[in-house]
Write a structure and sequence with these properties.
Strand content: 5-15%
Shape: elongated
Largest sheet: 3 strands, antiparallel
CATH topology of the largest domain: GIY-YIG endonuclease
Number of strands: 5
CATH superfamily of the largest domain: GIY-YIG endonuclease
Order of helices and strands: EEHEHHHHEEH
Radius of gyration: 25 Å
Length: about 220
C-alpha cells in the first residue's frame, strides 16, 4: 500500500504586482512534503501567475497530518481565520468548506448560490496589465482539436432545441433584435466609397467588407 502524506501549505508571492501575496491550500501526495517541490497549487489563476514569474513565489509547509480529512479541517480553520475569499491579500477565491472529495449537491459550496457581484471572491479586484498580457498569450491556440473538452462529442436533440430557443432565433433573440432595431431607428449613416472597389454604402457592413478588408485591396 502506498503511503500518502497530507499537508497544508502556503504560497507566498515575494514580489507582488498587486495586493495579492498569499495562497493557502491542502495537498495529498505519495512523497513527503519536503520532496513535493514541483507542486505549487490547484488554483488556475495562481498557477498562471507562477508561470509568469516563478522566481517570485515560494512554498511553505504549514503543517502535516495523518489523514486528508484532518488536513482539510486545518485548511478550513485557516481560511476562516484569514477570511481568504474576501481578503485582498489572498489568491483564494473561495473558502474550503467541506472535508470530503465528494462535495456534490448541498455539500457543494456553490450549491444554490449565485456568486456574482460582491458575492464573487474576485469582486473589486483587478489583474495587473502584466498578468492580463501573460494570460492572453498562454491561452492563444489552446483548447483546439483533441485539447477541447467537447472534442468528439455532440449535443443531444433536446440540448440543441434549448440552445435554439435561447439563441438569436429564439424568443430571447427576438427581444434582443427588437431592442437593437428600436435603438437604431432614425439613426443615419453617412455614405462612403470604398477606394478599392468603388462600392458606395453606409453602415457597419462597409467597414466589415470594404476599405482595409476589401477583397480587391488584399
Amino acid at each position: 500500500m502506498i503511503k500518502m502524506y497530507h499537508y497544508v501549505y502556503q504560497i507566498t508571492n515575494n514580489n507582488p504586482t498587486d495586493l495579492r501575496k498569499f495562497y493557502i491550500g491542502v495537498r495529498s501526495s505519495n512523497v513527503s512534503p519536503e520532496m513535493d517541490v514541483d507542486y505549487m497549487s490547484s488554483s488556475v489563476i495562481l498557477r498562471e501567475c507562477i508561470q509568469l514569474s516563478p522566481e517570485s513565489f515560494s512554498k511553505t509547509i504549514l503543517s502535516t497530518w495523518k489523514t486528508r480529512e484532518e488536513a482539510l479541517l486545518e485548511e478550513i480553520r485557516l481560511h476562516n481565520l484569514y477570511n481568504v475569499s474576501k481578503n485582498e491579500e489572498y489568491y483564494n477565491l473561495v473558502k474550503q468548506t467541506v472535508t470530503k472529495f465528494d462535495s456534490s449537491g448541498e455539500e457543494n459550496y456553490f450549491y444554490g448560490k449565485h456568486l456574482s457581484g460582491e458575492k464573487n471572491g474576485f469582486y473589486g479586484k483587478r489583474h495587473s496589465d502584466k498578468t492580463k498580457k501573460h494570460l492572453s498569450s498562454i491561452r492563444k491556440g489552446t483548447r483546439l482539436g483533441e485539447e477541447n473538452t467537447f472534442f468528439g462529442k455532440t449535443h443531444t436533440p433536446k440540448t440543441k432545441k434549448k440552445i435554439g430557443e435561447t439563441g438569436w432565433n429564439g424568443e430571447s433573440g427576438k427581444k434582443r433584435r427588437q431592442r437593437i432595431s428600436k435603438s437604431m431607428m432614425g439613426l443615419k449613416h453617412n455614405k462612403r466609397t470604398c477606394p478599392h472597389c468603388g462600392k458606395v454604402g453606409a453602415g457597419p457592413n462597409m467597414t466589415r467588407y470594404h476599405f482595409a478588408n476589401c477583397q480587391r485591396g488584399v
